[in-house]
Amino acid sequence: MAEATKETILVVDDVDLVLGLVVLILKGAHYNVLQANSGTQALKVAADYPGRIDLLLSDVRMPEISGPALGAALTLTREDLHVMFMSAFPGGDLLVLNYGWSYIDKPFVKARLLEMVNSVLHSPNKSQGTHGFDTRKDTDPKEKMEADTTPPTYSR
User: Residue 129 and residue 80: Cα distance in Å, rounded?
Assistant: First the structure.
């Protein structure tokens, strides 16, 4: 008896070899997999897909629409969508981690990808995206320094 279909994952990567490999790994783990080779195509696939999409797994740097821009756009219409990014570029994690999205470095091994996907899919945290952005980095450095050096007050 075949294992029941699990969650639906939309995989997006502009490198066909990477896209094909990730799709193969996820299908081998019995996920329902949608695929796109660009952010623009991913938006169309998501718009045309009538069912639930549980996870967006996207490359960070792509032509036309970046992974983070794609994630932000898709979460507007699919509020329960989990988002996870992958990148082979140094600093790719810095582009997404501050938004509360998950990230994996390329290249990765099959076991690590499946572990991360499972973890993200079963995380109760739905506060991923720009509304989870850490605004502390946007404060004036002088104000932050003053706040950090202000001695605490204690009441008796």
Answer: 11
